[in-house]
Amino acid sequence: MSQHECTCATQGESAFDYAPLDAVLAEHGLNGHGPDQSALISVLQAAQDAYGYLPKEALTRIAEKLGMPLSAVFGVATFYTQFHLEPRGERIVRICHGTACHVRGANEVTRVIEDELGVSVGTTAEDLSFTVESVACVGCCGLAPVVLVDDQTFGTLDAQSARKLASRFRRERAQ
Description:
By secondary structure, the chain is α+β, with helices and mostly antiparallel strands. The protein folds into two domains: 3-79, no CATH class; 91-174, Glutaredoxin (3-Layer(aba) Sandwich). A five-stranded mixed sheet has the order 2-3-1-4-5, with helices on one face. The chain has helices at 3-10, 19-27, 40-51, 56-66, 70-79, 99-103, 106-117, 159-174; strands spanning 91-96, 123-124, 130-135, 147-149, 152-154.
């Protein structure tokens, strides 16, 4: 057990579960046979798949195993939008704010969704049910304004249809 794990355990916090990360590192051949910095992105992707996000403890161990400074690993993890350093919601709601969506009412749709879900743009619900994000463009300008919920696209929304949509997903979550 590392000194950090001991410190956490003595302060009443639960120790970080390294088992999923160690499995990822072993799959990438990083179980003590020397660092391979070319594996960084694939290791970050697999670690995020294992945890749902990239915890600090995981980034620290990845840096150690790859023989890289933590700052370099953190720099890659924060450069690419696919990586997340905080837990994410079970459902990801992306509201398009590209030009067409903006002109056709994305701000109103955003307010309604935030109100209905109780989650502000750029945040995740405390119960990890929803993460709400603003995105620049989803490439569906003819359907503006557009909201993506996970992999589903919902277009030509207005306040009423956005309220129904958010309410539907909130009810489904409660079941």
